[in-house]
Design brief:
Helix content is about 85%, strand content about 0%. With about 110 residues, the protein is an all-alpha fold.
Length: about 110
């Protein structure tokens, strides 16, 4: 967790920080569902787009571990060579859950 990013967000958002975290919970769940469907269908275009979006949103919230994993999946999908999509999905879900646990402690 990038503490400086989170501190800045909390200062800017004030009481709305909790709503931002709740929105991330919802939107990231939808993105993970998209990633799963795309992986099952071998759709690297959707894998790329969803990984890019997850990367951006997690980075904006200070989620460095999720950001890094999303970035790597985005790169692989862009190149059309996604290694073991099931492992990537498990990693992304785990890192999302870790990020949400940390963020929700701050709300």
């Amino acid at each position: 967790l990038d503490d400086a990013t989170v501190a800045t967000l909390r200062d800017m958002m004030g009481a709305s920080f909790g709503a931002l975290v709740a929105e991330f919970r919802t939107s990231s769940a939808a993105l993970l569902d998209q990633l799963e469907t795309a992986a099952e269908g071998g759709d690297t275009g959707t894998l790329y787009t969803a990984a890019h979006t997850l990367k951006s949103s997690s980075g904006n919230l200070g989620g460095t571990a999720l950001y890094q994993a999303s970035l790597e999946l985005e790169r692989q999908a862009r190149d059309g060579t996604v290694d073991d999509p099931a492992t990537w999905l498990a990693t992304l879900r785990e890192r999302r859950d870790q990020l949400l646990t940390e963020l929700e402690k701050l709300t």
